[in-house]
Amino acid sequence: MMARNVEFLPVDLYKSDAHVYKIEDGKIRMPFSALSGMGAAAADGLAAARDDGNGDFISIEEIRQRAGVSSAVIEALKEVGALDGMPETSQITLF
């Protein structure tokens, strides 16, 4: 793929499919299942939670709850930058 200048886009919480590599602007978007340690059930859970009609995730804690994924899955998403800028909890700090 590299010899043919095929570019891969990273896993994205809102754009990646559970299992399908998608073509996006002439590049290939990685699916959740491409991550090391990400099983089929976890990939399906993430995609289902994202598409459940409850809107965007507001925290990593909410992803765990809605998708029912383990800490290992959250760590895999963090390692590839899919959760950059997202707060750990849904709690608001007042002080």
List keywords for this structure.
95 residues, alpha+beta, three-stranded mixed sheet, 3 strands
Could you characterize the architecture of this molecule?
It is a single chain. This protein is of the alpha+beta class. 29% of the residues lie in helices and 8% in strands. The protein has three helices and three strands, in the order βββααα. The chain has a three-stranded mixed beta sheet, with no helix packed on it. The longest helix has 11 residues. The radius of gyration is 14 Å and the shape is elongated.
Alpha-beta classification: alpha+beta
**Global outline:** elongated
Low-confidence stretches: none
Largest sheet report = 3 strands, mixed
Distance between the termini: 51 Å
Strand content: 5-15%
Average pLDDT confidence is 90
* Relative helix content: 25-40%
- Over all CA atoms, what is the radius of gyration? 14 Å
Please trace the helix and strand order, writing H or E for each element.
Answer: EEEHHH
| Total strand segments | 3
Individual helix count: 3
Oligomer: single chain
Strand order, biggest sheet? 1-3-2
Can you lay out the helices and strands and say which pair or pack?
Elements: E1 8-9, E2 22-24, E3 27-29, H1 40-50, H2 60-67, H3 71-79
Parallel strand pairs: 1-3
Antiparallel strand pairs: 2-3
